[in-house]
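Please study the protein below:
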Amino acid sequence: QDDDFILLRRMDRLSVQSSLRKSSPNGNTQTLLTLEAGCEDGHEIESPSLKRIRQSFGQFWKAYQAAERYEYDQTIGALRERHLQTIQHINRLLLSDPGDMGSVVKGTAKALVEIAGYYRIELCLVSPLRDKIQTVASFCKDTAKNFTFHTECKLKDGFPEKDWDIAKWVAIKGKTVSIRDARDDSECSPCVDSANAIKHGMKSITVVPIKLSEALGENAEALEENSEARGVIHFEREDLDIPSQKEIDLFEILAGQI
């Protein structure tokens, strides 16, 4: 192992393999090149050849990392911009009819789909007494697959934690949960209604707490006062894949701003 690559050699009766491997920016280790010396005497690939290959791939790897960082910045930067546009739209809704919060909430769910670019959204709020959580709005890009059921859970019902609905769990714990496949009963913890997940064509889902602390920066007093979840937002990516941690971080901030 040197500063740039891990050099792996494997010998068996028929061949010797030398592979150049490198950790990519996302943390995964990828094989860049495998050379095989088809010799029966067990001679390894000559060091000068490997040195030249290592130098060439060092230049290639720097270019690859730069391209991957650029793509990442473009993707996350575009998502951040769509989030900003969504907040601006919600502010306009509030200014246009501040007395009709029902329309504002429905418009928020719609904006998260049409402007922020998510596939499906469900907004749930905790009651002022913090005794239940229920759906207040939902919207789907495919209107035929909009939710036909509504979340309504008591937060103080005495049921064991393993039986809590995902919205209830996130509201009480104040932590985001991502489920890779909501259709699979064996994978879902906290609980997800897999029958409805199948019916509505769900796959990966993420439920994020709505906490003012996420939007208030680092003011310790404000964070303490506003650390409880006021509700949750269920969201699904347009490709139905599980979001990256950076996407979740951005959505948690967006939820706090909402």
